[in-house]
Amino acid sequence: MKICVGLSGGVDSSVAALLLKRQGFDVFAMYMQNWHDIEGTLHGECEWEEEKFVAEMVARKIGIPFYFVDLSDDYMKRVADYMFDEYSRGRTPNPDVLCNREIKFDAFLKVARKMGADMVATGHYCRKEPLLDASGRPVPGPDGKPLVRILEGSDPLKDQSYFLCQLTQEQISAALFPIGHLTKAEVRRIAAEADLPSADRKDSQGICFVGKVDLPTFLQQKLRGAEGEIVEVFRDFYASRPVPSTLEEMSLPYDYSPIQFETETYRSGRRHIKKTRYKANPWGAVIGRHEGAQFYTLGQRRGLTVGGHKEPLFVLATDMETNRVYVGEGDSHPGLWRKALLILPDEIHWIRPDLELEVGGERRVRARIRYRQPLQDAALIRRSEGLYILFDEPQRAITPGQFAVWYEPDGEMTGSGVISR
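RESULT FIELD:
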């Protein structure tokens, strides 16, 4: 079997290639470049060149062919444009999830197959196995092809299954994850023993194939900022709101439009200069200015540049129409927490299509709404308006645009969807 390894220059993909080579497969490596513009990045213009150089050295050390492919046009059209569009609408996308669905296991896979590869392999910490019945026979899916399962990686601190939550059965069937059964420490040890050039390299951070970025500067490549108000929401506001009781109500974010401010004119100083200020409001106060609501995301703490509070301020909501950013003091602020979310019908993705819920159906699952969040006990509830996830406990900063992912008790990831609200 001929296998193409997506070699990034990091230790994980390096060990993936090494293990496949040791297992006797016909292996070749390919480095993909997906980004050229360096504006807003924090590591300098030569980062990808350094990664490519290390990847090439790793391939030489292992003794496998090395190739280079430029997929930046695909990445811009299928990932970056989507990312900029989501931010412009006040939503927070996850480009790493899209990169895997649209680039690594689609555009890259097609190039690899043209070069003779039967499968592609990556350094993701996750596991894959066939779905078997009680007799040990493969279970066919709705299309008649054998179903495969994708499970959490064995290292709970490095599990990366979340980033693969949008893959299809066809994509998973063509993929290999050689290090999914290992811990990060074991991967480092294997790399060191093999004297791989990537053995001591730090893990990559930031946006997939872009790197670590200063987000406002990065987004300003495409999005124009505009100054607006930062409004602190007082806890008394929630006492004036009805307590959510239905599933729909529990999935709705708070509506802060009732918090309005009247102005009054007063005279100040020895010369009695006329000034204007906001009248006191029991529900909130304007406490600062920002440069564009689209540059903020729910739960964000840094970048608000507002002082004078005992506890940190967190972003509760953004309003793109009024260009307001609403914040609350303290991590226990009621505006940060909610028990339910909604995924619209056309945004629901079943990794296991045989487990799809019909309207009216329910299932207990374990779910997460962001990478590295511990799995939370929850119920999937299918209604005509979409798929609700009702958590046993309130969740912090449920963020539209991010992916909610659900798992079976044995760690199998079976579906995902874009959070609508």
